[in-house]
């Protein structure tokens, strides 16, 4: 495996570890903005966070020459399932919560990225 392939294959795994690490701590443990809309800003990050995960998984497939419609669906499923796992994980973390609406936001982020990638690659 070439170095570039190995790096791009590791990116989604490292990103998932990063998500797990952040969700293992209270929401304001690392970043607390002085804005009155701090909570709203962090809530909207669910959309972006899991869209990025899908895109990193897609990039791993693309870099390894395995990008197909089935791979795209598989990448979306992985990202959505990880979103569910992360929500369950957060239910055990003090000062965190697991909500259906957060999972829906995670899924919407993945869906938007999925449709954008499919429009670009499988038109």
Compute the number of strand runs. 0
**Can you tell me the overall shape?**
globular
Number of domains: 1
Low-confidence stretches: none
Helix content: over 70%
What does this structure look like?
The protein has one domain (3-17, 38-121). Helix content is 74%, strand content 0%. It has four helices and no strands. The protein has helices at residues 3-23, 38-63, 69-90, 100-121. α2 (38-63) runs antiparallel to α3 (69-90).
Q: Main traits of this protein?
A:
123 residues; mainly alpha; 4 helices; 74% helix; 0% strand; globular
Question: What's the gist of this structure?
Answer:
This protein is mostly helical and 123 residues long. The chain has helices at residues 3-23, 38-63, 69-90, 100-121.
Would you spell out the secondary-structure blueprint of this structure?
Elements lengths: L2 H21 L14 H26 L5 H22 L9 H22 L2
Helix pairs in contact: 1-2, 1-3, 2-3, 2-4, 3-4
């Amino acid at each position: 495996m070439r170095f570039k392939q190995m790096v791009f294959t590791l990116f989604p795994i490292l990103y998932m570890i990063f998500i797990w690490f952040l969700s293992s701590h209270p929401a304001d443990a690392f970043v607390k903005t002085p804005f009155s809309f701090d909570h709203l800003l962090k809530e909207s990050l669910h959309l972006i966070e899991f869209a990025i995960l899908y895109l990193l998984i897609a990039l791993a497939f693309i870099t390894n020459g395995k990008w197909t419609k089935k791979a795209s669906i598989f990448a979306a499923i992985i990202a959505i399932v990880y979103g569910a796992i992360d929500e369950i994980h957060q239910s055990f973390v003090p000062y965190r919560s697991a909500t259906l609406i957060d999972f829906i936001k995670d899924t919407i982020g993945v869906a938007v990225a999925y449709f954008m990638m499919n429009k670009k690659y499988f038109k």
